[in-house]
C-alpha cells in the first residue's frame, strides 16, 4: 500500500465516517474508494437492468428519459 499525503475536506470526511461507520480516516477513505469503483463498474449494468424491467412492465416514460438526458447535458430548455 502506498502512503500518500493529500488535503481532505474535514467536514466531508467526518460525514463519510459517520455514514459508513468507519473508525479511522484511512478506513473511511479506502471504503469510499472501493464504493466508487464498484458504483462505476456496476452502474451501467444496473441502469440497463432497470430500463429492461421498466420496458417490460410498461412504466418506461421516454419523455422523462429525454428530459433527464437533456438536463444531464446542461440543456434545461425541456424543463
UniProtKB/TrEMBL annotation:
Lineage top rank: taxon: Bacteria
A Pfam family reported for this protein in Swiss-Prot or TrEMBL: VapB_antitoxin
Name under which the protein is recorded: VapB protein of antitoxin of type II toxin-antitoxin system
The species this protein was found in: Glycomyces artemisiae
Amino acid at each position: 500500500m502506498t502512503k500518500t499525503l493529500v488535503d481532505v475536506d474535514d467536514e466531508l470526511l467526518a460525514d463519510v465516517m459517520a455514514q459508513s461507520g468507519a473508525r479511522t480516516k484511512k478506513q473511511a477513505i479506502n471504503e469510499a474508494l472501493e464504493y466508487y469503483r464498484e458504483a462505476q463498474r456496476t452502474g451501467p449494468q444496473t441502469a440497463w437492468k432497470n430500463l429492461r424491467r421498466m420496458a417490460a412492465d410498461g412504466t418506461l416514460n421516454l419523455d422523462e428519459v429525454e428530459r433527464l438526458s437533456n438536463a444531464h447535458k446542461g440543456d434545461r430548455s425541456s424543463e
